[in-house]
């Protein structure tokens, strides 16, 4: 088993659980055994103390009886009465030896020692005996334990009556090995008698322990207090003992104690077999648990391994792998779900593959499959030393058809186009594809450039025939680009990219199919670079606001200025508006540029108002601006921020921008007009506008394009057009402004025709806004001409 596999984890879990339970039980039982053993030992020690004291009492009674026999002996009493020292000494010696007394003496009624078997009697022992005699006088007899030569003795005192007390018989018996051996037999306790020495420490006496163990006990007692009856655990001969202290005697600074001990190890020993049995059962249980857990784990993980292998085959694209797990439990349910999932994935894979490589609308290959087909064609062409070409086309006016007729009509139109294109392919190895939107491409294998041109022209001719759908007839055209291997690229991505560049060039030129040329690509790269630089120009403050004055032609008075934008590039220098305005319009950047011009114009208006000049500022709007329904709100915010009136502005729009989307344009213009902003139609006469529609627009001004004004002094046709336009504007109630006034003759002609306002190089070229006030001070209107 692998250590990190599910099987090993299941086995480890079972093993951990049984070990945890068994070990917890083992330690709980062990702790309970030790706790109960200690409690039992404590109870044994208490009982042992009572037994030992009872033995001492019994021994004392026996000794007292022996002493009474001597005291009751007639001859001994006669000897005491006659003070026969020899007889007294002989009787004391003989009787003491007979009953095992270590010391025998006679104390007179006056508490004087009259006879003794001891050679030298210590003063402290003598005092203890006399004190005991005094006690016997009150009680009739007395017993006590005394210390003689660092050894404990039981001392008994009995009276000698004749019939009055004529003396006291004193006998001392040692607490010997026989007594403690009897105690050991009765209680199984170890007994040791110890006496404290004059210099401190404990001196061993009789003991049931060995001499070495008794010495170890004495050494340990020297390091602990014996005031308490129970002692801490003792370590004797590698065994642990619980001990209890009995104080036997205390005399002249010396103390004799009896230490009762019980081995904890011996008390627990009977339970060791039980623990061993428990360990054997635990080991057997672990073995059985491991075997059972391995069996159970394999029952679980075996089917999972099969499912894992099946999943691996699914990942490799094999959807025919058999799943043979037949069980009625959760694993069986999982295998059935897995089998169902495999079937669904297989069906979904087919659908995804179809969606990934086929266009669902036209049932043609899509861009991904076309790129793959092109790459294969390139590989074949390399091997055969031939060429292949791509013809890419983009339909003209399709967006307009889609917007006017609806998307359903547009989809049907695309299907018709796809059908026509497939009919133009005469060879089975040529493939047609829809790349997206209204873009189509044809792959021509083993084809030369001339043949590719012919097929492209044939495709264009096929699209020239009107297409009829739902009683509607649609005329379509297309921009067609051509690129191929090996002339224009070595891989599919490069060839597709260059065919697309040629296609967009064809749409601009409108002169048939265009073959890719590196110069076209260079222009595209420059345009891409220009877009990137345009986006940074505002942040870098590279744009400048220029103005061109607008004057009343009759009086020469300056009544307004037209705001214009100029770009001062840090590397390219001055860039004219014709070089970046159309590109900004195409990419949508024009909206950002328009907001910048409106912002700067409002700031200039506020500055002029502060100087007492009430001039109207004209700003050009693009097609994209008119389609921006948020433009009125944005312009209102600018006016409010700079605290200028909306009536100070005239927004200029071109005819073509209005006609691209008349409905949305009119909505935007009406909202601007409602704000109080004047509106002007710029470059009038150059577009294809409907006069009926223009009449409905809320405009205030009509600007005649400079192409009619510049040469009107020399060209009679231009004069007629200008005069007619002025009359048309007046008839529509509009103010007329002429652009492109470059000499005084044109000025006077326009005055004679009734044109209200004008602007042009004659008055001033566009100038930086900060130079306008200086020009205004220098301006002088021309002398009025004689009426023509």
Automatic annotation (TrEMBL):
From the record, give the transmembrane residue ranges.
Answer: 276-297
**Matching SMART domains:** EAL, GGDEF, HAMP
Ranges where the EAL domain occurs: 527-780
Limits of the GGDEF domain:
386-518
Is this entry keyworded rRNA-binding? no
Q: Which keywords annotate this record?
A: Membrane, Transmembrane, Transmembrane helix
Residues covered by the HAMP domain: 298-350
Which PANTHER family does the record associate with it?
BIOFILM ARCHITECTURE MAINTENANCE PROTEIN MBAA (PTHR44757:SF2), DIGUANYLATE CYCLASE DGCP (PTHR44757)
Protein name as annotated: Bifunctional diguanylate cyclase/phosphodiesterase
């Amino acid at each position: 088993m692998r250590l990190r596999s599910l099987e090993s984890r299941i086995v480890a879990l079972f093993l951990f659980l049984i070990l945890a339970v068994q070990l917890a039980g083992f330690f709980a039982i062990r702790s309970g055994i030790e706790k109960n053993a200690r409690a039992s030992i404590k109870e044994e020690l208490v009982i042992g103390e009572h037994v030992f004291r009872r033995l001492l009492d019994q021994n004392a009674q026996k000794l007292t009886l022996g002493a009474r026999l001597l005291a009751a002996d007639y001859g001994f009493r006669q000897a005491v009465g006659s003070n026969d020292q020899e007889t007294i000494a002989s009787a004391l010696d003989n009787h003491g030896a007979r009953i095992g007394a270590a010391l025998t003496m006679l104390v007179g009624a006056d508490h004087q020692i009259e006879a003794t078997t001891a050679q030298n009697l210590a003063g402290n022992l003598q005092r203890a005996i006399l004190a005991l005699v005094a006690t016997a006088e009150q009680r009739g007899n007395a017993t006590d334990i005394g210390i003689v030569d660092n050894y404990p003795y039981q001392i008994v005192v009995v009276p000698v009556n004749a019939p009055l007390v004529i003396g006291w018989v004193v006998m001392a018996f040692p607490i010997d090995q026989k007594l403690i051996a009897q105690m050991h037999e009765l209680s199984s306790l170890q007994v040791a008698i110890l006496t404290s020495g004059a210099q401190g420490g404990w001196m061993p006496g009789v003991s049931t322990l060995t001499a070495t163990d008794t010495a170890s006990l004495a050494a340990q007692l020297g390091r602990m207090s014996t005031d308490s009856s129970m002692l801490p655990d003792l370590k004797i001969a590698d065994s642990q003992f619980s001990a209890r202290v009995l104080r036997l005697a205390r005399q002249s600074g010396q103390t004799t104690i009896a230490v009762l001990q019980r081995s904890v190890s011996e008390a627990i020993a009977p339970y060791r077999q039980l623990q061993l049995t428990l360990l054997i059962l635990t080991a057997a249980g672990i073995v059985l648990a491991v075997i059972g857990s391995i069996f159970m784990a394999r029952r679980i993980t075996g089917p999972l391994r099969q499912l894992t292998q099946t999943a691996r085959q699914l990942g490799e694209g094999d959807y025919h792998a058999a799943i043979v797990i037949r069980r009625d439990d959760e694993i069986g349910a999982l295998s059935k779900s897995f089998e169902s999932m495999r079937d669904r994935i297989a069906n979904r894979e087919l659908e995804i593959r179809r969606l990934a490589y086929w266009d669902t609308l036209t049932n043609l290959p899509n861009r991904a499959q076309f790129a793959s087909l092109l790459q294969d064609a390139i590989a074949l062409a390399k091997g055969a030393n031939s060429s292949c070409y791509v013809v890419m086309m983009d339909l003209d006016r399709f967006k307009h058809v889609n917007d006017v007729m609806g998307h359903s009509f547009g989809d049907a139109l695309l299907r018709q186009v796809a059908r026509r294109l497939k009919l133009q392919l005469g060879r089975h190895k040529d493939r047609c594809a829809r790349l997206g939107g209204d873009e189509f491409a044809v792959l021509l294998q083993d084809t030369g450039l001339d043949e590719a041109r012919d097929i492209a022209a044939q495709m264009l001719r096929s699209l020239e025939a009107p297409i009829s759908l739902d009683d509607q007839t649609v005329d379509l055209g297309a921009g067609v680009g051509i690129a191929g291997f090996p002339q224009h690229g070595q891989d599919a991505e490069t060839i597709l990219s260059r065919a697309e560049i040629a296609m967009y060039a064809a749409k601009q030129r409108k002169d048939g199919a265009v073959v890719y040329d590196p110069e076209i690509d260079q222009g595209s790269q420059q345009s891409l670079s220009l877009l990137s630089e345009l986006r940074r120009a505002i942040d870098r403050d590279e744009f400048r606001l220029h103005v061109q004055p607008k004057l009343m032609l009759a009086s020469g008075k300056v009544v307004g200025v037209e705001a214009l934008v100029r770009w001062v590039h840090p590397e390219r220098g001055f860039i004219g508006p014709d070089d970046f305005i159309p590109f900004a319009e195409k990419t949508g950047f024009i909206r950002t540029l328009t907001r910048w011009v409106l912002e700067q114009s409002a700031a200039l208006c506020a500055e002029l108002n502060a100087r007492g000049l009430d001039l109207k500022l004209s700003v050009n709007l693009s097609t994209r601006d008119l389609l921006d329904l948020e433009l009125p709100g944005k312009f209102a915010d600018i006016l409010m921020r700079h605290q200028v009136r909306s009536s100070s502005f005239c927004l200029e729009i071109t005819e073509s921008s209005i006609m691209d989307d008349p409905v949305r344009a009119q909505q935007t213009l009406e909202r601007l007009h409602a704000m109080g902003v004047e509106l002007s139609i710029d470059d009038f006469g150059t577009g294809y506008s409907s006069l009926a529609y223009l009449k409905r627009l809320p405009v205030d001004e009509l600007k005649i394009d400079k192409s009619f004004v510049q040469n009107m002094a020399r060209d009679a046709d231009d004069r007629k057009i200008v005069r007619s336009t002025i009359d048309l504007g007046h008839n529509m109630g509009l103010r007329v402004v002429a652009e492109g006034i470059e000499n005084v003759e044109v000025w006077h002609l326009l005055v004679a025709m009734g044109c209200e306002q004008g602007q042009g190089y004659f008055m001033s070229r566009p100038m930086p806004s900060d130079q306008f006030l200086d020009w205004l001070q220098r301006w002088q209107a021309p002398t009025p001409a004689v009426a023509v």
